[in-house]
Amino acid sequence: MSDQTDMPTPVAPGDFTLEHDIVVNGKVELPAGTTIHVRKPMGGELRGANLGGLVRMDYNQVAMVAPRVTSPILHAHLFEVMDPADVTQFAGIIVDFLLPTSTKDALSQSA
Q: So which domain of life are we looking at (predicted)?
């Protein structure tokens, strides 16, 4: 059995590894080290979401989209108790999926 230092490396661009346990009512639902796969949201999965809010990483917008694009599914009750660092990781992936390549290129050149 591995310890926290042997956390798996994400295998796809949309994957991230939880840095902290997701605990609901004293029970660990998803342990730290769990890899969450995030697939690129398509139009229907963005229904009802404010794209500007997603790009600004607005918590409510990000939480709305989370269960639609994650595996294992980050249902609302899990997302609500996620550590802010893990929420930020997820939000960053969503923003990266939403930005056009030309915008990403311009941002990388200005850095």
A: Bacteria
